[in-house]
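Can you make up a polypeptide sequence alongside its tokenized fold?
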Amino acid sequence: MVNSLQDTTVLNNGVHMPWMGLGVFKVEDGQVLVDAVKTAIKNGYRSIDTASFYNNEEGVGRAVKECGVPRDQLFITSKVWNSDQGYESTIKAFESTLEKLDMDYLDLYLIHWPVKGKYVDTWRALEKIYKEGKVRAIGVSNFNVHHLEDILAVCEVKPAVNQVEYHPHLTQEEVRAYCEREKIQLEAWSPLKKGQLLNDPTIVEIANKYNKNSAQVILRWDLQNHVVTIPKSITESRIVDNANIFDFTLAEEDMQRISGLNINERTGADPDNFHF
């Protein structure tokens, strides 16, 4: 049972990762971003998820410096972008990320997408960075089962996390079962399907039953499915609301009703068919 924003899951290498964090995708670098990250931390969040592709690592770094919480009490994730994949270029990209964040180390570094012909070499670079102690855990993002199998066939360090698009319209049952079996922590990006699920009649009905809002019900569903979640918001009231999910538990029948909304529909690209 996850009881607070500071509660953690233990990754397969023993590192503790908060069950819930703040995502900053598409938040433009600048004061709005800095304020959002500081607001989240002030309200108890300890995990922040960024990526080189978001072009806002500097702002995240600044917010972390200014937030008043020691760096070692925070969990910072970033990702290597597709155009930087490959062994040498990934190592360079990681150094650039550390520089932009103005940090000595990262808590989690992910391969952003499984770029064909490159992700295995990219993984070797992540292993090197990990062994050098510059990152506490390494993982992947948007990997399907066969991509994970490619990595597991050759890796010396197993991925600790797989961050995928995950919400009631895309329950990723195959990936979820595989990750659970292999002790790879699943993490949800776009958990609210960019807001598209907030007016779903089933979710609204369940939310009314628990005296919660739709976002809170979906995020609680994530946690009860043992999926780490990182909803994005820049609004203080919503940042606080999203985290107000530790005082109720969804009944099994409601969990199943929410899972039953699955239609395998993505808002982002298909990891087997992307061109960027």
Strands lie at 8-10, 16-18, 22-23, 47-49, 75-80, 108-111, 138-141, 161-165, 185-189, 228-229.
